[in-house]
Amino acid sequence: MKECMACKEDIKDGARKCPHCHQVQSTIARFGFSRSGQLLGVAIVLFAVAWFVYSVLYPFSATDLGAQFEITQGEIELNTEKDPVIVNCITKVNNSGLARWTDFSLQAEYFDAAGSIIDVHYQKHDIGVFPMIGFSARVTGTANSEIRKYISCKVSIIDADNF
Question: Model pTM greater than 0.70?
């Protein structure tokens, strides 16, 4: 004979449920978790294990960057109120891959009407981007050419860390 975990009445050694209070006799029941609480706990543990396997063990390298991101056409924004003039290339970067990336190094190329590169700026973004999520990117720098020549821009990712 053993004692019920809940009502302390004597029950058979192999009993799974107390005949007096109907409490399930298990290790988890000692802590007072209901059946739905037990299922929720198991689900949380399974989710945590899956997330660990996914985020830590999923093999990606920086050479996969081109296939991982979709970058929209950049828009030029000129700040002529400052001297020297500040030029921005603003775009949207979407992580279409299955890995989380962080610490982006972006390059913005600025083009004139003939399609020639007239300026290049680099910027580091200390953010993390989860799979299937995007962010707005702004690459800022001092205009190194006449402001009327800045017609379009293109942002590309030149480095990022897989997290």
Answer: no
